[in-house]
Amino acid sequence: MELSNKRVLVVGLGKSGVASALFLKSRGARVTVSDTKPEAELHDEILLLLEHGIAVETGVVMVIYLHEALDKKIAAGGLTYQGIEAACIEGAVQRLRPKLMTVAVVMMSLAPILWESGIGADVMKPIAAPIVARGLSDSAGSWKIICTSRRSA
């Protein structure tokens, strides 16, 4: 089967999910991995996959936060358009803090490698640079979504 440049989604970041993603990537597929566990529980798996250039989808976790906030609004009484908007903002804000904390820790741990010039720096810089860049772009995307939601509310 030809997998070169085919888009593949691997659901679940267990041992078999990580192994499948790495195998598919080695065959030339464009792999995205998705899991519903919190990012903190998947930290090592996410780093491993990012090192190999595999996209890890965290949007599923955002949906869980949005769903919980919407359930609270439904339990509180009648659901209106304003209630749905408020639930979306509440869920997004709840998701933002743990996401930014995880990204900040990863970036703070890898950023010094980018300025290093000693032994092994030539190997580590190409590994650390995309992970730091991904953290910056993910954070910027999250902030843009939150700010857009706040502005429209």
Write structural notes for this entry.
- The structure is a single chain.
- The protein is mainly α.
- It folds into 2 domains: 1-57, NAD(P)-binding Rossmann-like Domain (Rossmann fold); 59-153.
- Helices cover 69% and strands 8% of the residues.
- The protein is built from 5 helices and 3 strands.
- Strand 2 (30-34), helix 2 (43-51) and strand 3 (55-57) form a beta-alpha-beta unit.
- The chain starts with 6 loop residues before the first strand and ends with a helix.
Q: Major sheet: size, sense and barrel closure?
A: 3 strands, parallel
**How would you describe the shape?**
globular
Task: Specify Rg, calculated over alpha carbons.
Answer: 18 Å
Number of strands: 3
Binned strand content: 5-15%
Run of helices and strands: EHEHEHHH
Per-chain topology:
Layout: E1 7-11, H1 15-26, E2 30-34, H2 43-51, E3 55-57, H3 59-76, H4 81-115, H5 121-152
Parallel strand pairs: 1-2, 2-3
Helix pairs in contact: 3-4, 4-5
Give a nutshell description of this structure:
This protein is mostly helical and 153 residues long.
